[in-house]
Amino acid sequence: MGAHDAGTAGRGRGKRIVVLDYGSGNLRSAERALAHAGADVTVTADLTAAAGADGLVVPGVGAYAACMAGIEASGAGPVIAERVATGRPVLGICVGMQVLFAHGDEHGVVTKGLGLLPGGVTRLPAERLPHMGWNTVTPPAGSVLFAGLPADSRFYFVHSYGVLDRAALAEAGVRVTTAHHGTDFVAAVERGPLSAAQFHPEKSAETGALLLRNWLATVD
């Protein structure tokens, strides 16, 4: 472990992180990655634990509608919203990022999301789907998640849907990181206590580990 690794891992030490289990997501890989970054991690469906944790991770894989159904069945939506409203850190991953938006449109079926971010999720206009594999990203000035990461850092994506409209996000004061597959799409967002990534940091080797450490550094 180098000096940078030791310092960033130390910033996460002892911080109580809950990975929310609502029936969808790479729970164990997220748990392992966060623990490696130095956090005290619990995977649980317990909403009291989710509300009280220092940081909350909302994972998600598969269909938007199925993830939203799981969140609604578990009653987790108000807990996520309350954390954001009161300035307590939340990190969404993959479909766990997508459900933070107002809606998702899959196969012509529109599903209401959590509405914590403006805009919707639609199918990527690309010849080859899913977008699967490693891709570079373009973070904005002042990004916390990508601070200190090399400009050519690559992250692991696997998705066919994403957020394309960045104008509403910019108007809402959201820092937007983009990537390109067929078109530019939203690869990550940052606004106050709310952060999210379309890619999988827990599957993105050392660059993903550095991003998780950056996020943990924002967790009080």
3D structure, described in words:
The protein is α/β, with parallel strands linked by helices. It has helices at 3-12, 27-36, 47-52, 64-74, 77-85, 95-98, 167-171, 205-216, and strands at residues 16-20, 40-44, 55-58, 90-93, 101-106, 109-112, 117-123, 131-136, 154-159, 161-162, 175-181, 183-191, 194-197. The longest helix is centred in the last third of the chain and has 12 residues, at 205-216. GO terms for molecular function: glutaminase activity; imidazoleglycerol-phosphate synthase activity; lyase activity. The active site is at residues 94, 200, 202. Its main location: cytoplasm. One of its GO terms (biological process) is L-histidine biosynthetic process.
Classify the secondary structure makeup into a structural class.
alpha/beta
Sum up the overall morphology in one term: globular
Helix content: 25-40%
Q: Which architecture per CATH?
A: 3-Layer(aba) Sandwich
Order of SSEs, N→C? HEHEHEHHEHEEEEEEHEEEH
Mind telling me the CATH class? Alpha Beta
Approximately how much beta-strand content do the residues carry? 25-35%
Distance between the termini: 24 Å
- The parts where pLDDT drops under 50 for at least 5 residues are 1-11
Number of strands: 13
Going across the biggest sheet, name each strand in turn. 2-1-3-4-13-12-11
CATH-defined topology:
Rossmann fold
Mean pLDDT: 93
> How many helices in DSSP terms?
8
How many domain units?
1
CATH superfamily: Class I glutamine amidotransferase (GATase) domain
Radius of gyration: 16 Å
What's the main sheet like?
7 strands, mixed
